[in-house]
Amino acid sequence: MRMLDEHAVSQAPGEIGGSLDAEMARLAHLIYTHAPNDGTFSQRISGLHVSRYSRTDMDYVKTFYLPSLVIVAQGAKTVTVGQEIYQFGRSQMLMFPVALPIAMKATHASYSEPFLGVRLDLDPQKIAELVLKVYPQGLPPARQRSAGYVTGADLGIIGAVKRLMDCLPNPGDAELIAPLVMDEILIRVLRSTIGVHVAEMGFADSGVQRVAKAIAWLRDNFSQQMKVADLAELVHMSESSFREHFKSVTSLSPLQYQKTLRLHEARRLMVSGSMDATTACRLVGYVSTSQFNRDYSRLFGSPPRRDIARLRR
Q: In the chain, what are the domains?
């Protein structure tokens, strides 16, 4: 593993001595150490992933994110969900309350100053346990909902994430101490400016939780025919209210979400299972191969055969 050189983690003039900047530099060093090359790497602590990218992207990378919190230690990224665009960089964090199809690209990254980030998967059940402690009087009213939320990461959050990374070299710390630090991170995020939106993930009757339940059904049954009215009934909402909540939380309609989910699953089957496009098309629920090819090209930028060949190269 190549050691971090003196230029790999940048610090702007005048920042030396600032406690947040110093902690951010330490976190960047840890991320760099645990990301052996460009890419995203899962760590021994469940739900912890680190990323390093040494160049900006010309095109968006299409993928799926679980409910998660992304914190940037260096560089910047742009993420799109449906029609919404999120730009965030050093010392900022981006939170997604539900599983979403996203498109992302690094916009500020180089070999000397790579993009360095941490992603934490968010567990609604754990959040539900902590919400009552953070909001004993109940949740304040939430502002307008969106698919994602960007805000600054304060010294407390950055310090806690650094301590979580510090647990990685020691298996005992990763097993016993890391869950406590993860709770601290969640509590600090719940108390932040986006805390109400995170907290909604843990309330069974919240609009976010109901949309999450519908998404869980779609992910488990993506190949089946779906009526929006049936999905609304599943989560005990009127169809009009369900459509409104689903669009506000995901930036997509239920049908758009299902189509995107099917296309991502077909791509996974073709890449990992060496499956041809016609078979993958049928397995994910498409009836028309020509319609599948058109939708696939529209989402991923090229027809299935060409796209899969490029990915395998």
A: 19-200 (2.60.120.280), 204-313 (1.10.10.60)
